[in-house]
Amino acid sequence: MADYCDQAPDHPFHGPYHDREYGFPVNDDAVLFERLILEINQAGLSWLTVLKKRSAFQAAFAGFDIDRVAAYNDSDRARLLDDASIIRNRLKVDATIHNAQVIKSLQAEHGSFHAWLEAHHPLPLGDWVKLFKRTFRFTGPEIVNEFLMSTGYLPGAHRDDCPVQARILASGPPWAR
């Protein structure tokens, strides 16, 4: 988002995300899971809507605790679909629970979700999209692209002249290796 670097500064929601999170490398599985779920929930909506609901998502999905979300059952699904503080889309809720279960499998096989990502890096976007579509639910090209940019696996989160870009490069994102 080239214009994100222009619209985000001083914005109460976009600003902190742009300045401290977007594009920086992430190695914590719970944070990676959160980013994936937030990107899935953004589909068809504005990023601002998702950022405004972020704390509600954190509460609804147990702080993005992968084990807890993977164990969600039908009553949890009903609770989520009744929760007006989050995006109540059945496909997105189901994808969140399913993807937590998939990440648990990836953790068992690779040690962590982060290690699974590292094992496949670098890939061109098209190959990442195919991999994510085979592995997860509700992960189309835009969701995969934004997830990978937001976590430092693909470049493009910030313009080269954005002051945050220098901090991202100093943090050693995977795309810059």
TrEMBL record:
The protein's name in its UniProt record: DNA-3-methyladenine glycosylase I
Q: Which domain of life is it from?
A: Bacteria
Q: Name one Pfam family in it.
A: Adenine_glyco
List membrane-spanning regions.
Answer: none
Q: Which organism is it from?
A: Litchfieldella qijiaojingensis
